[in-house]
Amino acid sequence: WLPLWLKNLPKKPINFITDYFRNVLAGSNPLTRAIRFIRLSPAGHPAFEDNLVSAYAALDGRRGHIAAGDLHKLLRLLCSEAPLNIARPILTILDKRDTD
Q1: Which residues of 17-34 are buried (b: 16+ CB within 10 A; e: fewer)?
Q2: How many CB atoms lie within 10 A of CB 5?
Q3: I want to staple 86 with a disulfide (CB 3.0 to 4.6 A). Which of 26, 41, 55, 82 is the partner?
Q4: DSSP E strands: which ranges in 12-56?
Q5: Which residues, other chains included, contact 38 with Cβ-Cβ below 8 Å and sequence gap of 6+?
Q6: What is the pTM of this model?
Q7: Can you tell me the distance from the alpha carbon of 31 to that of 28, in angstroms, rounded to the nearest whole number?
Q8: What is the residue-level pLDDT of the chain in tens, covering all 100 positions?
């Protein structure tokens, strides 16, 4: 947790540590870990790109690629928090792919 904290320097460090240990105790799956990495810092933060790499690694599972289903789930979860004008076009594409 310390390297993540130092890299992301959260505005509320106590909340970060509390959330981190709560998640560790609750257990997680690759999708949950990927979402957590992406949410650690905003897109403009210097650590954001490293967090994306960590999210990819969490989903990759040493296979050399991310399964389409996992990527689909990740995008749906991210869109649930995005403004509607951003989420709607992405969800439209995802919904179309579901019917293809």
Answers
A1: eeebeeeeeeeeebbebb
A2: 14
A3: 82
A4: none
A5: 51, 52, 55, 78
A6: 0.65
A7: 8
A8: 566 766 766 777 788 777 777 777 777 788 888 888 888 888 888 888 988 888 888 888 777 778 888 888 888 888 888 888 888 888 888 777 655 5
Q: Residue 69's CB: how many other CB atoms inside 10 A?
A: 9
Distance CA 42, CA 73 (A): 20
Give the pair of three-digit tokens for residue 79: 């869109």
Side chain identity at residue 79, one-letter code: C
| CA–CA distance, 65 with 61 (Å, rounded to integer) | 8
Alpha helices in the chain (DSSP H): 2-8, 13-26, 30-39, 48-60, 68-79, 84-99
